[in-house]
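Incident log entry.

Two folding requests arrived from the same account within the same minute. Monitoring flagged them as a possible duplicate submission, but the sequences differ. Recording both here for audit purposes.

Request one:
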Amino acid sequence: MSRRTLGALGGNVLALGTVSLVTDISSEMVTAVLPIYLVLGLHLSPLSYGLFDGLYTGATAVLRLAGGYLADRAGRKKAVAAIGYALSAVAKLGLVAAGSSAAAIGAVLTVDRTGKGLRTAPRDALITLSAPESMLGRAFGVHRAMDSAGAFAGPLVAVAVLAAAGSSTGADGFDAVFVTSFCIAARGVLLLCLFVRDRRSAPATAKTVSPRAVVSLLRDARVRRLLLAACVLGMVTIGDGFVYLLLQRKEDIANGWFPLLAVGTNLVYLLLAAPLGALADRVGRLPVMLCGYGGLAVVYLLLLSPVSGWPLFALTLGCYGAFYAATDGVLMALAGPILPEALRTTGISIVQTGQALSYFVSSVLFGLFWQVGGADTAVGVAAGLVLMAVVGTALLLVPRKAVRA
């Protein structure tokens, strides 16, 4: 992307991207080791892991609504985002204190996701307010590229910390990862406070931002269709941990190399996020997003295929990274133009909450299908549902000229 384009996007988008880069190094260090920590270290069943995975991503999704509403009502998006980033940072130390207690780990993950729930909508609203509407795809693409650079580095840092601690599965190694993750997350909070400019507005009146105003927002057919589409797509997306555990099961990967699976995905995401964001601005955001979910279906089918060895890793991780690059920021770019500025953060949080709650249900059901019917049955059902969701989303959004791609 040219220097002129980056200049047009503005320094605030780049500052927010830097905060996300640093924060994702921290969070992906934990995410990369969490599946083996829970399944191989604490011996959780697939169903139990599905509950934890859903909790980690979706159970506190309702707090996205609280964060979005509070940010709009107070007119201080940066402050709400900072509280969220700080909560997630502190939660990393909580994992050390939790030890091997599944209940304590669940409580700590809830705090971590509370932080993410509070910060996500205000951050994305700041992006929509910091770039021209015609460049929202590029803005989210640049932000997600920087975010994925951190996600790419995080597992590598985790592997390095585990190696330095002399353990790939022991408690000391995991504790070292969690403490290092906290130190990095704290730097992300500092960067946010120092370099991100808030887009403040006067505190909203009860008429402008109120429960009644939120309900009136949902009367907009464009918002309702986008929310329904987000829920449908969330229901067919299983967690990264499941994908990587299935790859490990298929190829018998050593535990110490497990975090590197996320590195492959995030490298592709890093390379494609900005170009696909720019493509979405040119050819349409909806077609790019739907193609991304087509890539997710290919990932599931590859896990069922006879393909093995390096071709399996290259194709699966490549398609998985492309899926994220084509969908993560593009959905928010679709949402931004149809939401009024006074309720922008609240509207984004509603869409994100619907998708996250659906993801929670998806993770639990996938874990249940795996435990009861076997991994292949669960993956086959997931692949079929993705294809149905792509068709359903197209029927919801393509014919409606009001929701412009």
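Request two (distinct sequence, not a duplicate):
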Amino acid sequence: MLSNRSQTSLQTADILIVDDTAENIRLLSALLLQQGYDVRKAINGKMALMAAQTTPPDLILLDVNMPDMNGYEVCKQLKADAKTSRVPVIFLSALDEVTDKVKAFQVGGVDFITKPFQFEDVLVRIQTHLKIQDLQTQLQAKNDQVQQAFDHLKQMQAQLIRKEKMLGLGQLVAGVCHELNNPMSFIVGNLNPASVYVETLLAVVNAYQQAYPEPTPAIAAMLKEADLDFVTADLESIIKSMRGGSDRVCTIISALRNFSRLGEAEVKAIDIHEGLENTVLLLGQRLVDKPDMPSINVIRNYAKLPLVTCSVGELNQVFLNLLNNAIDALERQFVQSPALDLSPTILLSTELTEAQTITIRVKDNGVGISETVGMRLFEPFFTTKPVGQGMGLGLAISYQIVVEKHNGQLSYRSTPGQGTEFVMQLPLTLTNH
């Protein structure tokens, strides 16, 4: 069911009738005015283009055969102009050849009605395409809001990179999440109604077809050539994309919230090796055999270490990020070079230095990191993973935890095609909290 606002919009829709026959214009205009539509008229192509460009209508009924400029050319120019490109065009013509109808759809028309026509048929098609246009407008508005949310996040990235330190990032990100929550709630809350609109539209079309199971030959030919199946599939695809986009933004907001609450973790003395082993256990399903690659071998080279006072949850998050990145690098290595005779391996090693700091190394023999990528490796939101598979926050968060929160160091060494080693250095006692 359409909202009250949408119903009102459809009832007062602005329809432009373009026909060089005055009688046709008078007939259609009178009938549409009786239905409550606003009607404008044009008797040739030039007048139609001027009227549409001055104030774009909600729908155009366009005759094909007109002097100077035929309907096909008018439609081409309408679709070439950004201001009028989204206005649906229904062709009205005495032409009944398949080639004429195909050409109408090729130049951008949404429907083709053959003269002489039944007004009930014209009215149903107008209502259908106005509803389709209304749904597409609503979906586009929601899509624009999602894009604005992503643009807002990208602007935040630029602000974060300019900061020499990330001490104030938590409060900043928390504010962004709060600001994004309202528009995202609106988007998510309207996805289900949008789906209902599509179902309603399909039901209307289906009911009309059932009410007229034996259409005239002209209508049957027109339905055969109509593009309603594509429009239906495209609407469903748009809604699916909207759901994916909103889920994506919600996931990013959740990650940013976690990012802004890093100071809440418990501080205590722990066994570093226990944290590493718990993380390996957590990632067990990613380490086993897969159809496209063998299991990943995890080798330990642990030194005898004292307990380390640290923020436990945060440090475990660093281990998780580094190990996940190592597994991703190994998987990409085997996708890019499936014939490579190589055993995928992750080496975990620890040592106690003379300066009484702990060194933790996570090394893999995956694809490695190029120098260009390495220059931006710890930037927030920077990722080399495909769209939808990474947010570019893992290493940025890890850097903040190790360097800013624990007064340690986080660096890496890598050779493209041979592997990467991340090196973390921590003091025995957390003094920066």
